[in-house]
Amino acid sequence: MDSDLQRSVQTASKLLAAALVVAGLYFCRTILVPLALAGLLAFLLNPLVGVLCRRGLPRAVGVLLVTVVVFSALAVTTWLLGREIHHLAGELPQHRQTIQTRLDSLKTVAEDGVIGRLKGLVEDLSGGQTHPPADSIPDDSEAGPATEVEKADSSNAETSGEETGWLTRVINFLLKTLAETIATAGLVILFVIFMLLRKEDIVQRFLMLSGYGRITVTAKAMDEVGHRVSRYLIAQSAINGNYGLLLAIGLSLIGVPYVLLWGVLAFLLRFVPYVGPWIVAVLPLTLSFAMFDGWAAPLAVMGLIIGLELVTNMILEPIVTGHSVGVSPFSLIVAITFWTWIWGGIGLILATPLTVCLVVFSKYIPGLGWVEILMDEKSSLEPHLHLYQKMLFRDEPGVRVLVQKMRDEKGLIATLDEVVLLALALIRRERILGRLDGADTERLLDGISMTTRRLVEEEASSPHDDPVASSGGLVAIAMKGEAEHCALQILETALSIRFRRIWLASEAGTGEILSGLAAEPPAVLCLGAMSPGAKRLACRLCRLVRERFPSQQILVCLWGWPGASPDPAPLLEAGANWVVTTVRGAVDLLEARSTSTIPGKLPSSSGDMQSSIRSLPAPENPAPAPRAP
User: Fold this and answer.
1) How crowded is residue 235: how many other Cβ atoms within 10 Å of its Cβ?
2) Top mean-pLDDT range of 186-190, 217-221, 530-534, 622-626
3) What is the 8-class DSSP label of residue 610?
4) Same domain for 367 and 409?
5) Directed axis angle between helix 276-291 and helix 259-269, to 10°?
6) Backbone dihedral angles phi then psi of residue 270, each to the nearest 5 degrees
7) Could you tell me which of 156, 245, 414, 579 has the fewest CB atoms within 10 Å of its CB?
8) What is the mean pLDDT of the chain?
């Protein structure tokens, strides 16, 4: 009860801390937004300052030169954009007739099409009761002329007052917004200058703040953040700049006005993944619909935008960036929504760099490991866990796709070893721990067997040699239950042959097994053991077989969890010749044995045996072949 209470308190404290962080981000946005913008610009401008410093300029001169040039260019661009927006707002009312014509044509198409038919059907079914009765309509003619004049005067007074109040509110809002924008811009410029001038000092203070025990981790995290964010910003700025320039040139050739506005907006909005390109496409396309009478110009604008998007997404971005920012697409969309909700339009632009910083730091901070799991681009599930999850969810098509993909990437034996066999070991472990009932275990084992058979059928389509089959045949014994039996079937698939016989030790008695071995002795006897109790049974059977048939070669396949290092000494002392823990080790051993000239001596193999093969040399004077009692 105390441990449950402690976990509840820890969970509540973490939720409270998260809520406080979100509240701090929201209520402190007046300071945090300029800091975040300054950090973004500092990441972008620091390489330029570095270039000037390498040319011999002092850092203070380089910072001053870069900031003056960049912010002067931004100020001039902002002034030009403001003039463009002012002219656009004054020109739009002149195209009211064109806009109305477009809307009327769309309305006509809608009324003559399916929507119009559905509307008529609804009116027919409604029975025609669409207008109120005549006697329910009040007669305004009874009102006297003096009353009408009074109403008109009061209406005009109210309208004039509303217009004056609305205009005052708009002017106050614009003045307030302009003042806030100027103040924010001044803070950003000031922060950028100090960040560029005192870069080394800021880094050292962060390292000191983290403590000497975490200085290595903090240094690595800061280096990776700087590298990834700077690389993303520089590459994306280059791509967006080319996109905006080509869009402006194309729109000017088509005849769309205010190309500077659309080019700059395209440059800025394309920093917003997934959403920005759609906004870039809608704005000039809507303007072309409103300003041109025909359909040629809108179609040309649409073709220009589609062509630029295809070239940018398929050619420029793969060449320049080479990869994404390291955040999964869905997580990035969620992050964009969150930062927009917290910080508004600025958060929309800052969402991607801030999310990259958060994901990178989560790799080095143990308490934020869940952030990396949820947001990192790489899948958090290993292949065998992914296979187990799909089988648990009854996703048969997903199982086939996953196994086929792994087989194409890794090959047959590696897929069986690193995916199928490990998923089988996971099923066995979950059953022992009581997390799977009998029905689910049987269904999952059937899925493993089906997956193995499918791989057999695919492998059978390609001809290959069969060196193991010529060695006299193999016999296998599953020591405990169906999981071991499935593991031996997996080994069969890797060997590309079928065992002459597979006994299930839980069903066949020891006497029956020994009699079968005496009647038809195999070249190699394989014992499959997976569960904890199976190893003890394998030791007991090894002793019995070695006492009864001294020359019999015994291979024990001690399947287990990845990274496990089972002790093979008890099995080797009990009489086993070899002990392996992987499918690759068993295949390499049996193939090496079939080509060896000295019985029982294992030649060196280049296969990956994971240091799991332990062997005992065969006796120099082997006993005669066993005979049936």
Assistant:
1) 17
2) 186-190
3) T
4) no
5) 160
6) -75, -5
7) 156
8) 77
Say what angle helices 145-197 and 59-91 make with each other, to 10 degrees: 160
Q: How far is CA 614 from the centre of its chain?
A: 41
Is the pLDDT at 543 greater than 90? The verdict is yes
Question: Which candidate, 337, 365, 363, 368, places its Cα nearest to that of 351?
Answer: 337
Residues in contact with 152: Cβ distance below 8 Å, sequence separation at least 6, in sequence order: none
Query: Which residues, listed in sequence order, are joined to residue 578 by a DSSP beta bridge?
Result: 555, 615
CB burial of residue 224 (10 Å; 0-12, 13-18, 19+): middle
Of the candidates 337, 323, 329, 331, the residue with the CA atom closest to the CA atom of residue 358: 331
The reply to whether 417 and 303 lie within a common domain is no
**324-375 pLDDT, tens per residue?**
567 777 888 888 889 989 988 788 888 888 888 888 888 887 777 778 777 8
Identify the residue whose tokens are 């993944």. 273
What pLDDT does 153 receive?
54
Last residue of a domain, one of 397, 426, 457: 457
pLDDT, position 602:
42
What domain range includes position 417?
Answer: 383-457
Q: What is the CATH number for 442?
A: 1.10.1240.10
165 occurs within a structural domain = no
Closest CA to 340 of 265, 240, 272: 272
Beta bridge partners of 42: none
**Domain membership flag for residue 172:** no
CATH code of residue 488: 3.40.50.2300
Per DSSP bridges, beta strands 578-580 and 614-615 are antiparallel
Q: Quick check: 187 and 34 in contact, CB under 8 A?
A: yes
d(CA 205, CA 282): 46
Global pTM?
0.64
177 found inside a domain: no
Q: Tell me: do 336 and 407 sit in the same domain.
A: no
CA distance 254 to 88: 17
Q: Are residues 204 and 306 in the same domain?
A: yes
73, 211: one domain: yes
Strands 524-529 and 553-558: parallel
| Model confidence pLDDT, tens digit, residues 505-531 | 878 888 888 898 898 889 899 999 886
54 Cβ contact partners less than 8 Å away, ≥ 6 residues apart: none
Asked whether residue 359 is assigned to any structural domain, the reply reads yes
How is 102-161 classified by DSSP, letter by letter? HHHHHHHHHHHSHHHHHHHHHHHHTTT--S--GGGS--GGGS-HHHHHHHHHHHHHHHHH
- Same domain for 427 and 507? no
Q: Are residues 422 and 326 in the same domain?
A: no
Listed residues 457, 481, 512: the one ending a domain: 457
Q: Are 47 and 230 in contact (CB under 8 A)?
A: yes
Q: Are residues 429 and 346 in the same domain?
A: no
Tokens at residue 337, please?
A: 């929504």
How large is the average pLDDT for residues 444-468? 70
DSSP for residue 471:
G
